Amino acid sequence: MAGLELALAVNGPLDDVRSRLIQGAAAAPDTEALSVGIVGLGYVGLPTALGLYARGVPGIGVDVSAERLAAIRTGAVDLPDDDRTTLSAALADGGLRLTRDPALLSDVDAVVVCVPTPVDRHRVPDTSALRAACAAVVEHARAGQTIVLTSTSYVGTTREMLIEPLRDRGLEVDRDVCVAFSPERIDPGVPAHRQRETPRLVGGETPRCAERAARLIGYLTDAVYTVSTPEAAELAKLYENVYRAVNLALANEIADICGNLALDPIEVTSAAATKPYGFLACFPGPGVGGHCIPCDPHYLLWQLRTSAHPAPLIEQAMTAIAARPRRVVTRAVELLAETGGALRGARILVIGVSYKPGVRDLRGSSAVEILAELARRGADVHYYDPLVAECVLPDGTRLRGERAPHGGDWDLALVHTVHPGVEYGWAADCPRVLDATYRFDVASHRQIV
């Protein structure tokens, strides 16, 4: 495995770090004979496998789900067009082999673990998939391998699930195998945030582990930033998403304040964002969805509770985020009442149910909670989302998306997710439009949350 020209150590001022990252942006490793096993082929693992293939690195993709493997083989997966082309080529020439058998991991030079780390309905971390994946990697590990965990989890996960079990198996880390944590930074549906241009962190158990992991991750990105330990990288990843969660909670609170003062929150936020320093523009919405922000801070909070260490700001932000969908429902009730209607029996169409524009993913979507709460209160709920054919509510109710809705058929249209390239002009004919995105300009009579 050839060396990556950029592997930054954490010891300089932030401005110096930034300048060094920019200077290293064009660095790329030279490809030599190397094979990688990717454990987990979801929204992180599959792009990881394709990114490696695009740099000439063949891979073995391991996933426990036969259904997911079948979807990948047929191309029925949510990918950008260029990645879809890469997938077809990788499957055609054998550059990506798909399997459910983790024993094949013993044949590869490096292993990258990319399995989901969700929370349960009580917002308690569910590490079952991660533990199973790491156990399989440890069982089939061999001397000479580099093993990199990318899944976001609590601080100490890499040590607990990989480093210590490998030592128990007789494989000494640094001498026999190299282990590191390099958190994923995948942003589905946002073409501007591509893997190649997004810097990655690497925290190795030893300097040699960090170096070898940086070389591997260097096939995916032009900028690798090394930290002193896996734990430092784990907390850095949690900090990234905690920071985003706190700012999103604040953005929603500012939006509510704007409503009280009869101001436009988008205008106010855009104006504040003209400041070139000290302000990160976050915009309000119906809730916070996806695989990261609604989940990852709870891994840190859960860990801190075991030592009774308070984190009141993070706690409050996550409480506010969890409450946001109910606030949207309350506003829907208010809007109906203001115009002489009632929620019970009202025909309500939710526009867009995926958690963000341009993706087909429902995981963590606040639309599911909004639909369920509206239905619980007696509304006749439906949805329109050309990217999502079916939506399953928490009680098991299955909703099929409307194919060609007419605005006049609904008492209220609730705008949740607006996909690019989709025509929504018909919504202007709906008598009441509640815009939870704050940016839906199709209906001039719309009301905001």
Which keywords apply here?
disordered N terminus; single chain; five-stranded parallel beta sheet; 449 residues; 13% strand; 2 domains; Rossmann fold; 37% helix; alpha/beta
Give the SSE map.
Layout: H1 14-23, E1 36-39, H2 45-54, E2 59-62, H3 66-74, H4 81-93, E3 96-99, E4 110-113, H5 128-140, E5 146-149, H6 157-168, E6 178-181, E7 200-204, H7 207-217, E8 224-227, H8 230-260, H9 265-272, H10 296-305, H11 312-338, E9 347-351, H12 366-376, E10 380-384, E11 390-392, E12 398-400, E13 412-415, E14 433-435, E15 447-448
Parallel strand pairs: 1-2, 1-4, 2-3, 4-5, 5-6, 7-8, 9-10, 9-13, 13-14, 14-15
Antiparallel strand pairs: 6-7, 11-12
Protein name: Nucleotide sugar dehydrogenase
InterPro entries: 6-PGluconate_DH-like_C_sf, NAD(P)-bd_dom_sf, UDP-Glc/GDP-Man, UDP-Glc/GDP-Man_DH_C, UDP-Glc/GDP-Man_DH_C_sf, UDP-Glc/GDP-Man_DH_dimer, UDP-Glc/GDP-Man_DH_N, UDP_ManNAc/GlcNAc_DH
Domain UDP-glucose/GDP-mannose dehydrogenase C-terminal: 349-442
Description:
The protein is α/β, with parallel strands linked by helices and 449 residues long. It has 2 domains: 14-228, Rossmann fold; 229-449, Rossmann fold (3-Layer(aba) Sandwich), CATH 3.40.50.720. Helix content is 37%, strand content 13%. The chain has helices at residues 14-23, 45-54, 66-74, 81-93, 128-140, 157-168, 207-217, 230-260, 265-272, 296-305, 312-338, 366-376; strands at 36-39, 59-62, 96-99, 110-113, 146-149, 178-181, 200-204, 224-227, 347-351, 380-384, 390-392, 398-400, 412-415, 433-435, 447-448. The strands form 3 sheets. The protein has an 8-stranded mixed beta sheet with strand order 3-2-1-4-5-6-7-8, sandwiched between helices. A 5-stranded parallel beta sheet has the order 10-9-13-14-15, covered by helices on one side. It is globular, with a radius of gyration of 23 Å. It comes from Actinocatenispora thailandica.
